[in-house]
Amino acid sequence: MISTMLEALNKHLNELKPARLFPLASFVGEEPLVAKAYDELHLITAKSVLFVCNVDETMADGSVDNEWTLKVKEYAAQEGAQAVVICGKIEEELSQMESADRLEMIKDMGMSEPGLDRMIRKGYELLGLMTYFTAGEKEIRAWTIHKGDKAPQAAGVIHSDFERGFICAEVFTIADLVAVGARPKLKEAGKIRQEGRDYLVKDGDVMEFRFNV
After folding, report:
1. Helix spans in 113-200 (H)
2. Which residues of the chain have pLDDT under 70?
3. Domain 129-211 class?
4. Is the pTM of this model over 0.85?
5. Which of 26, 43, 47, 165 is least buried, going by the fewest C-beta atoms within 10 A?
């Protein structure tokens, strides 16, 4: 099966098609060694690609396209890639501002968020990544994990002991916290739930782990 996959892949690449468009799933089936053999090739065109369109200030919010951004997005779709629109000039100015001034400029420009945020989110989407949070009295931290990770794997990003000795996780969402205003109110509203080993972490979850090693 590996040789069949390699022959098909060779034909695919000789047709000048990127490896990310190769239908690997149709060759894997019940043979994980096929996927392993493919991964060991480390093909550069198998990497995810994000095209970034640099536009003028009138398109800074990324909500509209022009002739050229449409062409880039069309090409990206054909290549199994994605595209995002930002205004480099605006992003440079925002990067040099204090937080309050930055928020005011974003509002004045009619933008809901900086273009850099859109680009980062699109990159996460391409790579199959997401973010969960831990929140203590002194700080709130964001942790990057893969989509499909379960609670113990998410805990392991903080420390391997957390994963090895995982017992459970207390979970709530940022949206719920914003809605009620404080963590004690979350408990009163029954918004904090306890999840076990099989819990699939969701983007934006806030988690506190119980573990024993």
Report:
1. 115-127, 151-158, 160-164, 174-180, 183-188
2. 30
3. alpha beta
4. no
5. 26
